[in-house]
Amino acid sequence: MELNALITPTNTIAALLALTPFLAAAFFPQWAAGRARSLPFWAQLASPSVLCLPYLLVAIGGGVFRWGWLALYALLPVAVASLLWQARRTDLPQRAKITPLTPTCNNRSLGTPIRWGSRITKDSSSQRGTWLDFVVLAVLGLAVDLRWFEGAWPAHLAIFNKVLLLDAGIYGFIALRQLEGTGFDLRLRLRDAAIGLRELALYTPIALALGLGLGFLHMHARWPGWAPIAGAWVFTFFFIAVPEELFFRGWLQNLLERRVGRTGALLVTAILFGLAHFNKRAAQFNWRYVLLSAVAGVFYGRAWRSERRVGASAITHASVDAIWSLWLR
Questions:
Q1: Which of these three, 180, 197, 231, is where a domain ends?
Q2: Fewest beta carbons less than 10 Å away: which of 3, 21, 236, 271?
Q3: Alpha-carbon Rg of the chain, whole angstroms?
């Protein structure tokens, strides 16, 4: 199918609606989170249901609309928001510090005596994470990796599914859960580039030795031109690297660090990242891809944890994928 056939007015509006939460959180993180938390409580939990609108537009335009899929894209983001709101509430007694100022009253939400005018301050180091966090990550991760919902979309437009599930996670983890240390801020710094390219330089000789030795990589001596190179990198950065780095490093590795430490979290996340590629570019278990991806995951994780910035690890990730797709596939 030609690209022009996919670029319709309804698909364009749907794309803008799907990308707005992602880009708002990426480039205006404090403003976006503040706006969400300023809503009434019921609206905070119900507002993610608007993520069904891109499906509605694309499915009607493509002639594949089903009420069941509409209900799923309306209700799943609400369920994610509700679970992560509950996760924050469960974590709150461990992460709240109370500074008493005036006479005591009882605060039921904390289960602790608190004084009028007291300040409740967050201690991010005591955010331990809960089983609810990992349930949400498992559902979102498996839905994308096993392509549970891609049948809802017209051909070549299943990328909407990935973006909408990412939006649901961003809203839940960042706006409502208020998970500290995710580093989801794409206002890139020179330091992000330095860290990202450093990890690329460390990973490249390992990847070449392993990939060529296993027959997974194949050299192509060609120069596609600067425009295709830049286009491939930018597309990969925004639609592959950033979503995967936010999920695996900003959320998963971040939460695991609180349970198993920095090294354990780095290795476990890298292994899970590798396994997430088991069904890529092969009908059966693609162990070569899994191995190379798991090793890459170590360097992506190192880039993220250097200063806890998704932008840094996404630079490494996008560069690896762009080099692979242009010269080594």
A1: 180
A2: 3
A3: 21
